[in-house]
């Protein structure tokens, strides 16, 4: 019993130390991008490098989201999400991850 609790504590502790392991994207986009941190506190979002790689525009991503869901449009960002090039579109209470290459909706939260 002690051994089981010890292993559980070790697992939980390692997840706290390495949160990126848990937050890996549960999808794979058609455009894979090497990770590049912009600054010490900021990840790569809406950079010229990402805009050159995207096959779809912001307007395309919004149209795809609106075709499937209704709601007030919030923030729209082109992101390198764990090596996946996606548009993150806030629409109503949802946040959609849209593949910046294929236009496929990869995730809805």
Summarize the entry for a quick read.
The chain is built from four helices and four strands. With 109 residues, the protein is α+β, with helices and mostly antiparallel strands. It has one domain: Nuclear Transport Factor 2, Chain: A (Roll).
Terminal Cα span = 37 Å
What is the CATH architecture descriptor?
Roll
**What is the 3D shape?**
globular
**Structure summary, number of beta strands:** 4
Tally of separate domains: 1
Q: How would a crystallographer describe the biggest sheet?
A: 4 strands, antiparallel
Q: CATH class, please?
A: Alpha Beta
Residue windows where pLDDT falls under 50 for at least 5 positions? 14-22
Taking all Cα atoms into account, the compactness measure Rg is 17 Å
Structural category: alpha+beta
What brief labels describe this structure?
4 helices; 25% strand; four-stranded antiparallel beta sheet; alpha+beta; 34% helix; single chain; 109 residues; Nuclear Transport Factor 2, Chain: A
Question: How does this structure look, described?
Answer:
The chain has 109 residues and is of the alpha+beta class. It has one domain (23-108): Nuclear Transport Factor 2, Chain: A. The chain has helices spanning 2-17, 19-22, 48-53, 58-68; strands spanning 73-81, 84-91, 94-99, 105-108. A 4-stranded antiparallel β-sheet has the order 1-2-3-4. The N and C termini lie far apart (37 Å). 17% of the residues are buried. The model is unreliable at 14-22 (pLDDT under 50).
Would you spell out the secondary-structure blueprint of this structure?
Blueprint: H1 2-17, H2 19-22, H3 48-53, H4 58-68, E1 73-81, E2 84-91, E3 94-99, E4 105-108
Antiparallel strand pairs: 1-2, 2-3, 3-4
């Amino acid at each position: 019993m002690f051994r089981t609790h010890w292993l559980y504590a070790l697992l939980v502790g390692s997840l706290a130390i390495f949160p990126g392991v848990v937050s890996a994207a549960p999808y794979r986009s058609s455009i894979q991008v090497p990770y590049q941190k912009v600054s010490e506190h900021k990840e790569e979002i809406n950079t010229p490098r990402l805009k050159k790689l995207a096959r779809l525009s912001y307007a395309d991503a919004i149209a795809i989201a609106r075709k499937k869901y209704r709601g007030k449009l919030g923030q729209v960002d082109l992101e390198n999400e764990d090596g996946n090039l996606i548009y993150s579109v806030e629409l109503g209470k949802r946040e959609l991850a849209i593949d910046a290459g294929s236009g496929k909706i990869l995730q809805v939260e």
